[in-house]
Amino acid sequence: MAIKNQIPVGILGATGMVGQRYIQLLENHPWFEVAWLAASDRSSGKTYGEAAKWRLDTPLPEHIANMTVRPADPFGAPKVIFASVDAAYARELEPLFAEAGCAVLSNSSAFRMTPNVPLVIPEVNADHLHLIEEQPSRKASGGYMVTNPNCSTIGLVMALKPIEERFGIEQIFVSTMQAVSGAGYPGVPSMDILGNVVPYIGGEEEKMEAETLKLLGRLEGHSVTPLDARITAHCNRVAVADGHTECVSIKLGDKLGRPVTPEDLLAAWAEFRPLAGKELPTAPDQPVQWAPQDDRPQPRLDRNRGNGMAATVGRLRPCGLLDWKFVVLSHNTIRGAAGATILNAELLASMGKLEQAAPPDRSGSLERKKTIETVGAIVEGVFGL
User: Fold this and answer.
1) Catalytic residue among 29, 128, 244, 331
2) How far apart are CA 81 and CA 278, in angstroms?
3) pLDDT, tens digit, 9 for 90 and up, residues 332-356
4) What is the pLDDT of residues 111-162, one digit of tens each?
5) Active-site residue among 29, 151, 235, 331?
6) Is residue 144 a contact partner of residue 104, using CB atoms and an 8 Å limit?
7) Is 244 a catalytic residue?
8) Quick one: pLDDT at residue 367?
9) What is d(CA 214, CA 48) in angstroms, rounded to the nearest whole number?
10) Over the stretch 313-323, which tens digit does the pLDDT of each residue have?
C-alpha cells in the first residue's frame, strides 16, 4: 500500500540515543515526517543542534538541527508519537499523550506487560494490536499506546516464532552477549567493559523471560494467554558497539508428529515471511536470515542485514541437553529499538489506525497540566541518556 500524504510524527525523548535513531531512520521516510521534537526542560527552547550531541554515523539533517525542541507536553504535539524515555517517566508521560488523543508508539518497558497494551513484533503477533480497542483512552479520545519489546527479546522471538508455529516449543534457554549501545549514552564506563564481560544487566533477564512468552502467546478475547513454555535467560554486557548475540537452546513440542530435522528448521526460517505483500517500508524482505558459515553470525559482519531489521541465525546443531541449539544476532538500536517502533507505526498506518487517532485535546485540565509540569521537572537530563 502507499500513504498519499506524509503523516506528521513527534519524537518524545528526541535527544537520547534511540531518539537519534528515530531521526536517522525517518529521514526520507515515504510515510512519516518528523514535525515535533520534545525533551527535558534542560533542552526545550533550544534548537535540536544545540540540545543534542549527535552520535550516529550519518550527518544530522539540517532541517532537524534547526528545529526547536519542545517541552514534553501533549498540547501542541502531533497525533502520532514515537516515544523513548526511561520507564519511570514513561509511566507518567505516555498515558498523558494517549489521553490527549495521541497514538503513542513506545520503546519503553513501562507498559509492555500491561494486559490491554499490545506488545508487538509485526512479523510475530500483529493480531495483538486489537488490544488498543480495550484501552480507556481509545474510547475517550482516540489515543492509545503500543509497545515494542526489549532489544534482546526481539531477535530471540523472531527466530523462535516460525519454529513455534510449526513444531511447538516447550523449553527455551538463552544466554546473551549484549552490545554497550543497549545501555544508552554514555552507557557502560570504558574501564568497566574494555577487556571484560559484565554478567548482569538490571531487569534484563526478567524482561526477556516475560516478554517472550507474551509475544508468542495467543490473543484470546480481551487479553493474551502467554505461551505455555518454560524459559530461562542469562544476560551479559560485552565490549561490542552494536548488535546483540544470543546463544539459544530449545526443546520442541510434537506438532509435526515426527522427529524434527535440521532441514525442517531451516525451511521454517526460510519460509517465514508473514509481512509479504504488505509493502511496509521498514520491513525486511526476509526477516530471519540464515548464515551458513561455521563462525557466523557476528555483530560486525551481520548486524546490518535487512538494513538492520533482520535477525540472523547460524550454528544450528543438536543440543545434548534439549533438542536443538543455534545463535541469533540482531541490531539492538535498529531492530531492537527505533526501527521496531517505526515498523509498528507502519503496520498501524496500513490498518488505518493512525488516521483514527484524534488530534490532541488542547484544552486539558489544570490538574493534568500540573502533572506534565511536575514530570518535566523530574526528568531533567533523562532524555539525553
Assistant:
1) 244
2) 22
3) 999 999 999 999 999 999 999 997 5
4) 999 999 999 999 999 999 999 999 999 999 999 999 999 999 999 999 999 9
5) 151
6) yes
7) yes
8) 45
9) 37
10) 999 999 999 99
- Grid coordinates representing 295 are 563462525
Clarify whether 247 is annotated catalytic: no
* Placement of cell 524515555 in the chain: 85
- Cβ-contact 177, 201 below 8 angstroms: no
Regarding whether 342 and 325 lie in a shared domain, the answer is: no
- Describe the crossing of helices 151-167 and 262-270 by its angle, rounded to 10 degrees: 120
Residue 1 included in any domain: no
Cβ count near 116 (within 10 Å)? 17
Which residues are within 8 A (CB) of 80 and not within 5 positions of it... i.e. 6 or more apart? 7, 8, 9, 10, 32, 102, 103, 105, 345, 354, 357
Number of structural domains the chain divides into:
2
Q: Are residues 108 and 170 in the same domain?
A: no
For residue 185, give the C-alpha cell. 549514552
Query: In what helix (H) or strand (E) does residue 357 lie, and over which residues does it extend?
Result: none
- Is the domain of 133 the same as that of 157? no
Report the alpha-carbon distance of residue 48 to residue 182 in Å, rounded.
Answer: 23
Q: 112 lies in a domain?
A: yes
